Amino acid sequence: METPQPFANIYCSQELTTQILDSHIICLSVINTLLAITAIVGNILILIALHRETSLHLPSKALIRNLVVSDLCVGFVEFLLVGKWISILQGQWQICHYFYLAYKIGASTSISVSLSTLAVISVERLLALLLGLKYRQVVTLRRVYVIAIAAWVLGVGNAILAMLNPDVKIASATGSIMCLITAFFCYTGVFFRIRRHQTQVHRITREQENQTSAFDISRYRKTVSTALWLQLALVVCYFPHMLLAPFAYPEIEKTLSSALYFPLFFTITLMFFNSTLNPILYCWKIKEVRGTVKDMFSCS
Question: Rounded distance, CA 37 to CA 34, Å?
Fold first, then answer.
């Protein structure tokens, strides 16, 4: 009985890659190169804008910065994937292995950090609503940094373990689903809490509403709206891959069939597009970031 090949050998094997049209590889390479450049430039601009902007709440800004860094890493990961495809076109199989291993570690880590950070942001937004004045005592900058570092350590650890032991992929997928479920329940809780608050506000006089709660709730809604748009963009970009991956990977790895290769990596490209889309969402939804980015370009 033939022992299964390591996944890097499979995706860089001549038997599989010779079945793939060069035009498909070139198309994917061009698209991912463009997305890599826009992701790197866009997220660097957002990092600079966040560094210059001082009015944003520090723990919230730290979480957004962590998400931006993970998106920035995705841009460099795309270059690794393009390097893999170029090495396939040139028949450099050993170099292809190195590129693919680096790509898998980088992609798994960045995606894991993005999912976990968005889940933490949803929890943070719910806590801001539930805790009230105690929020700043509970959600501190130090705790946010600890969570961010833990997300990166776990992301790298899971990526390496998934390479060494294929069974870990199931645990990683379960963790990703748990992040999405956590975000769903948190935002559902936020929605019902805001609805309840609106009902209570209607019982207060117009003058009291304007003086006490209207501005705070309005600002809170904007931050929740930003987080929801980021979460929605991730789900839309990741959903096709989540549907196709359970069927495509086993089919390719067992039969070395190239029929699902292009659709699979096209959905991966769509996932990476999320890292180009996020900087646009930051500029659209966060007024302070938009103003700082405009000032950066006006100065230049």
Answer: 5
